[in-house]
Task: structure prediction
Amino acid sequence: MKQVWRKQKPRTPGFIRAFTMETPLGDVLEAEFNFHERLVRLSVEIKEEKGRMYGATVKNGTVQSEKDITSGRAYPVFRKIWPFREYFSSLPDKDMLATLGGAYEIYPPFQPEVSEKKRNARGPMESALFPSTRYDSIFGIVRETKFQRWRRERREAREARGSLWTRFKRRVWGDLQDICLGVGFGCLVYYVYYDYVVLGLCLGILGMVAGLLDFLVRKRSVLMTKVLSFLSFGSYFFYNGYVYF
Result:
């Protein structure tokens, strides 16, 4: 079933807009809006609980009442509504989402802000950057530790790079091209000018060009062994040509 909100006639007197949705698991969500009094009424019908219904009324980000609609008694419904917060966040009514004001952690998908009242009500070690873990055990949420995150990031980076043999095959052809080009061009310069100084300068320039090709054209890390080999041979020929010839 396509997960979209559908308009319906409000059931509660005084409410002017209403939307309903059925989740893939068969739960039915409803939201009604009273624009003049800035009230939003949320209700959920949970299939796993044999259609038991729970509801809450929110005014400007503050929960006014919570109840078990099936029995008609007051009942804390945070654990019933919170799992559906992403569905309620997709309500096609900006005024309704603004009136909810972050209640039950329902925020507009394009502007996930935390109201000042919610921020002040949290403990000193909690903030918008560090969400509360109070209900993790209830909903079975398992958060990564810093060490687990570090290990995962390293594993993902290693998988992205590939094995040593894969990396070797990926770049060996380009490096062989650079080496062959450098050797061929060096031989050509030597036979044309017959001068070690010119040969040394050309090899040094070719080493820098090979590094720039890797970095700018091939978009990969520079093979320093290749670059240093060109520079070393270039320095050797330049020194010998300048000193002895």
Notes: The radius of gyration is 34 Å. The first strand starts at residue 6 and ends at 7. Strands lie at 6-7, 17-22, 28-34, 39-46, 52-59, 62-68, 73-74.
